[in-house]
Amino acid sequence: MDRKINERVWGDSWGREAHYRKRRVDDLLLDAAGDQSSSYRKLSSGKYACLLCPHTPVFDTPVILSMHMKSRRHLAAESRFKQNEKKDKMR
């Protein structure tokens, strides 16, 4: 009986391990995007917002954020940002 109650509350060990692995993969994806850490922000809701794109998209998971950061639209916004930054330094 205790085992059944414990499984309902905490889940089985496989579920906890799978959840831990998923969170670890998410952390690694964000670390891989570390050089672009100023291009996104983690919101209080746990979602991620892209700060470079003009429409400021919000993403649920780091996986979707990393896919967005590789997209043509984001890369174009990033290049425009770098060009503007370079112009400001020359002034």
TrEMBL record:
<keyword id="KW-0407">Ion channel</keyword>
<dbReference type="Pfam" id="PF15803">
    <property type="entry name" value="zf-SCNM1"/>
</dbReference>
<dbReference type="GO" id="GO:0034220">
    <property type="term" value="P:monoatomic ion transmembrane transport"/>
</dbReference>
<dbReference type="InterPro" id="IPR033570">
    <property type="entry name" value="SCNM1"/>
</dbReference>
<keyword id="KW-0863">Zinc-finger</keyword>
<keyword id="KW-0862">Zinc</keyword>
<feature type="domain" description="Sodium channel modifier 1 zinc-finger">
    <location>
        <begin position="50"/>
        <end position="76"/>
    </location>
</feature>
<dbReference type="GO" id="GO:0008380">
    <property type="term" value="P:RNA splicing"/>
</dbReference>
<dbReference type="InterPro" id="IPR031622">
    <property type="entry name" value="Znf-SCNM1"/>
</dbReference>
<keyword id="KW-0813">Transport</keyword>
<keyword id="KW-0479">Metal-binding</keyword>
<dbReference type="GO" id="GO:0008270">
    <property type="term" value="F:zinc ion binding"/>
</dbReference>
<protein>
    <submittedName>
        <fullName>Putative sodium channel modifier 1, zinc-finger</fullName>
    </submittedName>
</protein>
<keyword id="KW-0406">Ion transport</keyword>
